[in-house]
Fold these 2 entries.
Entry 1:
Amino acid sequence: MARTTRQRAAVAAVFDQLEGFHSAQEVHARLRSAGDGVGLSTVYRAVQALADDGELDSIRTDSGEALYRRCSTQHHHHLVCRSCGRTVEVAGPAVEQWADRVAGEHGFADVSHTMEIVGTCAGCRARD
Amino acid sequence: MARTTRQRAAVAAVFDQLEGFHSAQEVHARLRSAGDGVGLSTVYRAVQALADDGELDSIRTDSGEALYRRCSTQHHHHLVCRSCGRTVEVAGPAVEQWADRVAGEHGFADVSHTMEIVGTCAGCRARD
DNA sequence: GCGCACGTGAGAATCGTTGTCAACTGAAGG
DNA sequence: CCTTCAGTTGACAACGATTCTCACGTGCGC
């Protein structure tokens, strides 16, 4: 299992070239316009396989779309505008420590966490 | 606008009775089995209207489903065991403040946030 | 090379959600 | 009370992201 095929290599390559989060649809379109014909189903499978192997990190946008990124980059959280969807990546060492400590106090180990901050950005407030 | 109808009251009532996060589909099913006939579209609209008014908070599950909860009750987070599902509610003033501060620094207002901490609880670790 | 289990891809199916539109109904004003 | 009408409803269609299906293709160990 985990055979190395042209298609999987192509999907993995996209995430090597691109920073940040990208949807399966976007990867598919990108490969298609680059001349590499890779089926949509295959892109989804490849992306999920990579995520299972811990090579990609995934989040969900407000509209329910799944986004993936190469997950080597250090941990951070997302600050999302509820109106325009603009997203800012924020790092929070304090939060990481707090989560670990609180979990430890309750006897939990191998702790990970997710956090999302939602608000209205300056631009959208001005616009109303 | 914002007329008070039987349907909207029914949807709001569900969140008064129930703790935690619930999906629109779940609310719809619950109302239906309770004898209150409310259309699915209406549930979606009511839930979104309530979220817009700041009465409900929303997050997305891993599978892309939208969940809502009454956001008046005092804020807390969940510490979940990835093995047995045991859940502990934890309060974290430090995190609230951090989230507000970081959001403010980026020009965001009306900030809310969700956080979930996942780990393996003492019992499950001992069991393996 | 051979075989075959795993991988592929086009299209159908699914699922949550949103749009459509004719019928309905609060509530403001006679 | 009764009218009026804009906001609301709900059955159903449409939608977009994702997953499933299945006949065909292809790494890779022999």
Note: The two ends of chain A are 54 Å apart (CA to CA).
Entry 2:
Amino acid sequence: MNKQNIVTRFPPSPTGTLHIGGARTALFNWLFARHHNGAFVLRIEDTDQARSTKENTEIIIESLKWLGLDWDEGPYFQSQRTEIYNECIEKLLSSGKAYYCHCNPEELERKRIEAKELGLKPKYDGTCRNLDLGKGPGAVVRLKSPLTGRTIFKDLVKGVISIDNDELDDLILQRSDGSFTYNFAVVVDDSKMGITYVIRGDDHVNNTPRQILIYQALGEPIPQYAHLPMILGPDRTRLSKRHGATSVLAYKEMGILPYALLNALARLGWSHGDQEKFSVQELIDLFSLEHVGSSAGIFNMEKLLDLNGKYIREEDDAHLADLLIPFLTNLGCSDLNREKVKAAVGTLKKRSNTLVEMAQGSLFYFKEITYEKQADENFLRPELVELLENLLSDLKGARGFDQKELEKIFSAFLDKYQIKLGKVAQPLRVALTGKTVSPGIFEVMEVMGQETVITRLSHGISYMKGKKNT
RNA sequence: GGUCCCAUCGUCUAGCGGUCUAGGAUAUCGGCCUCUCACGCCGAAGACACGGGUUCGAUUCCCGUUGGGACUACCA
């Protein structure tokens, strides 16, 4: 392999946002280019003017940036390349490799349906193929593709794929409105941009022979192909909106770390022995097409969550705090103290698989609490008032409020009343956090600080007293 | 319908003819740890779609069946 010449590309169509299937295609192209010190090109395929939007283009670019998939060239826009396409059309027309077709679409559609009903192949019948018609209203340009022979190519992940040219019809290159079709624009661009490796979803394998025919008509070299197995929804059908969170940005909003997503996407279809966790650099170092599998797979959300949790656990607190602040703000926290967020993060990273979970789990540090119903009923019981009052007075007298000091205070307290920690920890937890589930009670108290602990415990005690009276 | 592609635990996968009583991860279940919940650790259960070949020997190679997917547009 000539390492100097490797050029890959990612050509999203802005008719939708970037979903995880597209992201994985982008990732594999990017990894392949980076691994071989090649170039990675970004091209926006907006030839479908009716469905392409600027917003989608922006979302796609934002998604790629968030994932850290940077490109060396582009973004190119197909909508700005009509001159190039026109030149190529001219070339094909003048060399007799393409022709004008005046058949009207309704007629064609009718013939297609007829052919289907007869059990025949619904392909273009070649009416205008040899008529040598000129340009005219409603005319399209079609490729004059070979009637016989086979088109064969060696796919880098699927092996040799061969299809009878008879299966292919004279596909439209330029529409009657002057715009260009996907298959044509792709070939022209890949060729002009010097793309050497086309790595894409295997929903394109059937397009490949058609595209090869266009390369041949153009007299341009054919790139290497690698068709990736598709990512399917849980119902084993093509991934779409109805499968829920498929857009890359939705994962960002969920509190997934970009490199965790990348890792999960890489493992869907690619493997390196038994290894599950890869840094981005490892991915670049180890990636190769030989280890890309050939069967379609379902994206496993649970595994992503687990992986994300692992990354969260090993991320440093300060960085996590910065990432967490926007999520806390979203949940209504304001005037956040970064140091306190950092301390809170330290107590929650082991119990959070996403930043959203972490934000929710740490809310009691930053906002007023309310008691959860079950927690209230089970633990804020009036008979505990005296015990908690004694504890409160010990806590008021505490000289320090770090975990070590608190453990000492509790140890003495427990000894004095001959009780287990469990007896007092749960009611205290509810008084401090409103919930029965939280980080370790000493951690919580240290991060919360003596003042808040005393305030909340006092409030809890008077609340319990209130119950006694009713 | 036609063409093309695919087929190992629920899911993601390792396996490139003997090393497979099929390995890892995740999810599930049990245990340990323990102030709750997690984390961590230990353990359990769980798969080669089916049928023919080829071979001394098939999860691995070939064919067929079944099942799934994609494509079959003046969408990409």
Note: The longest strand of chain A covers residues 39-44.
